Amino acid sequence: MRADLTTTGTVRPMHPEVEVTVLRTAQEALANVAKHAEATRVGLTLSYMDDLVTLDVRDDGAGFDPERAKDGGGFGLTSMRRRVSRLAGTLEIESEPGAGTAISASLPAILRESPSA
């Protein structure tokens, strides 16, 4: 399937925990698209803002009912939510059957500490 990546804002090194959380969220979201979505395209947008780093993953796949996923949601969505919330971030999921899925993870933009001189 086609995958597009867009980066917005000024890229800067984040604290390693923030970087790993963004990476793992992207990996899990893409794994879910590959396993479940039957999508033909997926887009990722990584946005660097003053106080937030946001990852948006959108696909044109089959979609699902997010309310049903809350009750018996798969391991992937649950692990994404836990990982993001552990760093005081938020994870939002928008989807409906037949209309694709959008996942947005927002995390505090905690910069990597520079080594002391």
Indicate the structural class.
alpha+beta
Describe the global form. globular
Q: Give the amount of beta strand, in percent.
A: 25-35%
Question: Strand arrangement, largest sheet?
Answer: 1-2-3-5-4
Counted beta strands = 5
Largest sheet: 5 strands, mixed
Question: Nearest-angstrom radius of gyration?
Answer: 15 Å
Helix count, DSSP H or I runs of 4 or more residues: 3
Estimate percent helicity. 25-40%
Low-confidence stretches: none
Helix and strand element order: EHEEHHEE
The first-to-last residue Cα distance is: 47 Å
Q: Give the averaged pLDDT, no decimals.
A: 93
Would you summarize the structure shown here?
The protein has 117 residues and is of the alpha+beta class. It has three helices and five strands, in the order βαββααββ.
Provide key terms for this protein.
single chain; 117 residues; 5-stranded mixed β-sheet
What do these coordinates show?
This protein is of the alpha+beta class and 117 residues long. It has 3 helices and 5 strands, in the order βαββααββ. A 5-stranded mixed beta sheet has the order 1-2-3-5-4, with helices on one face. The longest helix has 22 residues, at 16-37. It is globular and about 50 Å long. The protein starts with a strand and ends in a 9-residue tail after the last strand.
